[in-house]
Amino acid sequence: MVKTQFDADIILIGGGLVGLTCALALGMSGLRVSVLDAAPQAASLAPEFDGRVSALGRASTRLLAALGVWPRLADRAQPIHDILVSDGRIGRGPSPLSLHFDHLEGDGEIAGQPLGHIVENRHLRAALYAALSDHAEMVSLRPASLVTGYAPDPGGVTVRLADGGHVRGRLCAAADGRESPLRQMAGIKGVGWNYGQSGLVATVHHDLPHGGLAHEYFLPGGPFAILPMTGNRSSLVWTEPTARAQALRRLDQADFDIELRARFGSQWGEIKSEGPRWIYPLSFHHARDYVADRLVLAGDAAHTIHPIAGQGLNLGLRDVAALAEVLVDAHRLGLDIGSAIVLARYQAWRRFDNVSLSVITDLLNRLFSNDLPLLRLARTIGLGVAGSIGPLRRLAMRHAAGDAGTLPRLLNGNPLT
Ligand SMILES: Cc1cc2nc3c(=O)[nH]c(=O)nc-3n(C[C@H](O)[C@H](O)[C@H](O)COP(=O)(O)OP(=O)(O)OC[C@H]3O[C@@H](n4cnc5c(N)ncnc54)[C@H](O)[C@@H]3O)c2cc1C
Predict the structure, then answer these.
(1) 254: alpha, beta or left, given left = phi > 0 and alpha = psi -120 to 50?
(2) Is the distance from the beta carbon of residue 132 to the nearest atom of ligand 1 less than 6 Å?
(3) pLDDT digits 0-9 by tens, 311-354
(4) 6 pocket-lining for ligand 1 (C-beta < 6 Å)
(5) pTM of the model
(6) CB of 307 closer than 6 A to ligand 1?
(7) CB within 8 A of 308, min separation 6: which ones?
(8) What domains does the chain contain, in order, with CATH numbers?
(9) 34-80: per-residue pLDDT in tens?
(10) Atom of ligand 1 at shortest distance to CA of 39?
């Protein structure tokens, strides 16, 4: 039987960074959203929940500004002034040919602007919750709600919960992460593989200031990213084969710091790791379709990529901007926001950007995570050549900032209404 009573226009499954941002964008534009997440809210705000930081491109920060999130976050964000990409081997330091992006190279309105910002995920999450509290009449947060099923019908969609309850809306938006139970329930196929690598995440304190430099250092075990945080701190995303990453995580601090120094170098004086270490197993997945009957996928649920270029969340936020614009415009025109024709517009808008960046990050990881002499030589020369061609460097900078292609209004920093 088709029920007509709706609890919300959109049932958003997954209150991670993508889901919360999406709920805010939709709620601010007049759509009623119910956010269901399996985790309790207090757990997701605890310091030990997620040790990651995110490198946000300029387009992502413009979106967060348009949603009123950035003002709550800006003084905790570290601007990125330079990015250095180099190849190397443990104990021998980086090879002399490298690729250097400098924020002073940007022209036009981005001249002198940071290349991006590093934010701690926990601070971003807290800023999103604070912004959402201003729109509580449009967005209801329902933490500790495990979704176990969804049933579309011609009039709407019913989402079932583990506690026996259910919620009904016009559309179900799934930002439920890389394993995406909703994607699986809908039978959406895709391509995917495990990298056999894990990203070890830790914070490093150093004596000297980093000057806003992010260093992507390619070592035989995998990329070793040093991301500048506020103060004299940097965040590491240290990729290694999984068994090795787990062994590193278990080391006591003195032994861990010895391994760290062999890779980190001494450019910032004495270094010391601080706080807990986290491990994230790395995998690739791309859904064949981002939409099904009254269902739409966004963020890692649609595409999970290697963190080598720090782009997974940026892609998810670009999904949010496109999806919110498509749904809000359809709603204003009086269209059914769950109809196939509306959802197809979102899929068409996001497919090319998501596929191309997914493929590029996968290839980069394959090219750099090895120690084959010929490949090592080729990539060192490649980095040197790419680094010496100004227009190529500037094009790469625009793409990394999320400034390429037709941007949805939010990514230009403009409100949807
Ligand atoms: C080591 C590492 C470093 C990274 N660095 C960067 C970076 O610098 N820049 C960048 O842009 N990206 C980066 N990324 C990628 C980025 O972290 C992810 O793309 C992003 O966090 C995905 O967010 P999401 O909201 O889509 O998914 P998730 O954060 O996985 O959220 C999914 C949510 O869905 C909920 N959920 C799942 N199933 C159910 C269910 N059945 N019912 C209810 N709720 C459910 C979960 O509780 C969870 O809260 C990095 C990734 C890693 C691993």
Answers:
(1) alpha
(2) no
(3) 999 999 999 999 999 999 999 999 999 999 999 999 999 999 99
(4) no
(5) 0.94
(6) yes
(7) 216, 223, 225, 239, 361, 364, 365, 368
(8) 10-193+284-411 (3.50.50.60)
(9) 999 999 988 888 888 888 999 999 999 999 999 999 999 999 999 99
(10) 47
